[in-house]
Design a protein that fits this description.
The chain folds into two domains: about 110 residues, no CATH class; about 50 residues. The chain is built from eight helices and four strands; from the N terminus they run αββαααββαααα. It is an alpha+beta fold. It is about 65% helix and about 15% strand.
């Protein structure tokens, strides 16, 4: 596997709200297909509407070559990408599929590292806060210092809890 190709494919997989995603443009470029052919392949997929909605987001961008006329493309998850490219065949297509899977897995690993780092920081701050709370409860002099430490610690804990809270994209449908 060519290292430069792998790095280029890594650039084609991005972090969108904590999930690795790619675009129909990236698929067209990687598989050396016309973008219109990739759009047609997405349109002609025989999958459920639920799968399509969960894994393909229709997007538009201004086309500078056509006086700002909106140009359609799709953003897709790894599952959507896999469903789409299953129909692409040939030795070169198989090599690109393997490299794309590596790129998606690399991005997922990067996101996991960020989460684990925040989780470790959260545990450290919560432990430190509890320890300091115990220490200052024994001394009136330390109580004044604690007043200044408590709020920044509470704020950081709240921020980390917010960032670590998993978001469920379908939760709004359930609550509605």
């Amino acid at each position: 596997m060519n290292m430069m190709t792998t790095l280029n494919l890594r650039a084609m997989v991005s972090n969108e709200n904590g999930e690795p995603k790619t675009t129909s443009y990236a698929v067209a470029e990687a598989f050396k297909k016309r973008h219109s052919d990739v759009l047609r392949a997405i349109k002609n997929m025989k999958c459920s509407q639920k799968f399509r909605e969960r894994n393909f987001a229709l997007c538009f961008e201004n086309n500078k070559l056509q006086n700002g006329k909106p140009r359609k493309f799709y953003q897709m998850t790894k599952d959507g990408w896999m469903f789409l490219v299953m129909g692409f065949n040939g030795e070169k297509a198989d090599a690109v599929k393997e490299q794309f899977i590596d790129a998606f897995n690399w991005m997922a690993g990067q996101l996991t590292q960020v989460f684990q780092s925040k989780w470790a920081r959260y545990n450290h701050i919560v432990g430190y806060r509890e320890n300091r709370k115990q220490q200052v409860s024994c001394s009136a002099r330390d109580m004044n210092v604690w007043k200044h430490e408590k709020h920044p610690l509470d704020d950081e804990i709240a921020q980390l809890e917010s960032e670590l809270q998993p978001s469920l994209p379908f939760a709004s449908e359930v609550l509605a």
